[in-house]
Specification:
This protein is mostly helical. It is built from 12 helices and no strands.
């Protein structure tokens, strides 16, 4: 029995899926955390769909003969960086609302280009474009693992080097500028590195899983954790458990691992909100009890003084 389990876990498909699960969780704990801090959760979806438009451009250039060497992943990366630059330019003053609008506009432009180019791409190649949207962690190949590992290592290094700067820029862009920090450079570095990470992750596991895993665990952790380090560790844990549950469900009753992982990750946000409300009620209750105790103490003191008089 144990030998059968070990043989199953070490088979190529399962082993690559397990490695991919850990790498996606690492990407979520680094990139997703700062995007939620910055108020840019929608950017994950915008970049992931922009990658779809870039992949369509790459296939069009290949099959039209204009640039046969142009790989679709290059188009995905170009479109992702485009979204990040437009978003960064709109948010140089620190207003996240302007960045959300810029993401929406670039998202619509990228999807329109994708749909336009699909008419000129051989129908047999169109599913390759939609593969960027759906994806499947059970279909990872060695190249996907290498890309994900490179992305995770790059993000970890960037986060270790510029952790404090990213926190300052995410929390108070105007204050960072006022204190002489080169906030615009860190602002663009954070957005572009996140966009590249999202594009590579989308190529590997699809836009739906990337959006669910990068946003929901970070949003949930942001509600209950009390420090940046706590949020990042919590994001890693929630993302990892969600994806492992998705894999387990796919092996148990043939469900989509991405769908199950996305549902669990989204539910973690609901649970986190409830935990936060319960904490607030407990804190309010403690404060009320404290006020009652102080009031009772004050009344006892007054009665004691009156008695002596």
């Amino acid at each position: 029995m144990i030998e059968e389990i070990l043989q199953f876990l070490t088979s190529g498909i399962v082993l690559r899926a397990l490695i991919g699960v850990v790498l996606i969780a690492l990407v979520a704990s680094t990139s997703g955390t700062f995007l939620v801090f910055r108020g840019l959760s929608f950017m994950t979806s915008g970049v992931a769909h922009a990658a779809l438009g870039g992949a369509a451009l790459g296939l069009f250039l290949q099959y039209s003969g204009i640039a046969p060497w142009f790989d679709p992943i290059l188009g995905a990366l170009l479109f992702s960086v485009f979204v990040a630059v437009v978003t960064g330019y709109a948010g140089e003053t620190g207003l996240s609302q302007k960045m959300e609008v810029a993401i929406g506009v670039s998202f619509a432009l990228s999807m329109s280009i994708a749909v336009f180019l699909m008419y000129y791409i051989p129908p047999t190649q169109v599913p390759q474009i939609w593969g960027y949207l759906i994806g499947d962690i059970l279909l990872l190949d060695n190249l996907d693992i290498i890309l994900l590992a490179g992305t995770a290592v790059f993000l970890i290094l960037i986060t270790l080097l510029f952790h404090k700067e990213f926190v300052y820029v995410s929390v108070d862009m105007e204050g960072s500028l006022a204190h002489g920090l080169n906030a615009r450079a860190y602002h663009y570095l954070m957005l572009i590195s996140s966009a590249l990470a999202i594009a590579f992750a989308t190529k590997a596991v699809g836009a739906i899983l990337v959006y669910a895993i990068l946003v929901a665990p970070a949003a949930a952790s942001n509600e209950v954790a009390h420090s940046v380090k706590g949020v990042m560790l919590s994001v890693f844990g929630i993302a990892l458990l969600s994806e492992l549950a998705g894999l387990g469900a796919s092996f148990s009753f043939h469900a989509s691992p991405s769908a199950i992982a996305g549902i669990i990750a989204a539910l973690s946000y609901v649970v986190a909100i409830q935990i936060k409300k319960m904490r607030e009620r407990v804190d309010d209750g403690d404060l009320e009890e404290l006020l009652k105790a102080e009031l009772a103490g004050t009344m006892d003191d007054s009665l004691s003084i009156d008695g002596h008089e």
